[in-house]
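Bench notes, afternoon.
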Amino acid sequence: MSDDKKEMINEKPSHMLDKEKKSAKEGSFAPLFLIMFASLIIAFYWDKISFIKNSIHFIFDPTAGSLLAWNLNLGMLIIVLIISVITTLVQKYATDQGTLKELKKEQKEIQKQMKEFKNHPEKLMELQKKQFALMPKQMKLSMRGIIYTGIPFILFFRWFNDFFISTGNPKFWLGFSWFWFYLISAMIFGSILRKKFDVV
């Protein structure tokens, strides 16, 4: 068989290639569900699987633990900043930022049109359907970073819980618990870093 014939047999039709590219761009919920399931298993069996717990303590006790022992508030801020930088970079390079920006732009345009046609129920309903159709695509793409960070987050949070229980659950600035201090700090750092790195 000639090389030309082999090439014609192996070559996929353009519509099939377009479909594969579209599917790859939109992503899938399946890996996300698997990571979430694995994270729940780790969280549930944290105290029962000593190998995982001891390994994480071996890594974090002399590093993150030392920072918190040095200065509770500043040490926590440094840890949150490091985690926020990592998650922002993962979000930037593990997701299709170009498609996400296009979807975000389209969402804004739809919202603008919805304001213009607020007195036209039929047109408004049509725009709402279009908006809802974009949401799953945007969610699948934006949550792809969790595939890489989901399990490490669970491990870190379990370590945080162990550490602060062992130190008597100290209070942070303004009387916040470690969880709320982490959450608020992560939201602030995340917002700043997303703008700096141009991440959707």
